[in-house]
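Hi U.,

Before I forget, here's the chain from the pilot set. I'm dumping it here mostly so it's searchable later in email.
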Amino acid sequence: MKNTKNPWLKLSMLLFIWFSLNCQLSFGADTISANQSLSANQTLVSSGGNFVLGFFTPGNSSNYYIGIWFGKVSEQTPVWVANRETPVRDIDSSELKISDGNLVLFNGSQVAIWSTNISSNNSSSVVAVLEDSGNLVLRDGPNSSALLWQSLDHPTHTWLPGGRLSLNKRTNQSQLLTSWRNSEDPALGLYSLELDPAGTNSYIILWNRTRQYWTSGAWDEQSQIFNLVPEMRLNYIYNFSFYSDENESYFTYSLYNREIISRFIMDYSG
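Structure:
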């Protein structure tokens, strides 16, 4: 039998082979499902376009990181970094995908270098979704409301609206901001912002996680400000809220105008 001369048949066969071998994301999706992966220049884009997730390289660095940045700001501005201590060099063979119920980043040698690290969940329905708030969430199914993990619980150097800076009084564990090492290296830097573990209801900046560098003063419930941050009295942009009980304390904020693009950062300068 002679080989077919039908170009459309050949094209159909090539497309079938390509789709069989490549279960990767299309550009603009906001979800990674169990049979998909993200690599190279592919990105997730939140439903309203506010945030983008993908591989990025800061400044002139030759290292690549999985991060989230603003989608409507011309200059790429990272607000969260997954593998801040373990960069990759080859993004063409590195990939972010669902594995054993976790979102996992594999380097070019297919070694897992970052994971959401939740208890083993082998459900094939687990999905990762980038929300329009900038929160990357892991759910047991696209229609599930129960969160398995969320990036807002693991901030890096940026505090987004809706996020919490908290202190678990039972475990003495903090959700804190930690600066980058420098403008081209998102690894843990010298400065951190956290709730004072001594229970003073104030925020402190620590140098090298040991020496106090700055304090906000205690929270004044009546004035709704921290005592040593009088500028908060002039606020007309942010709706701040402080909560404390026997189990935890946390500070959070929202925007009166949700169209405003805003962030708080712990800068590497301190």
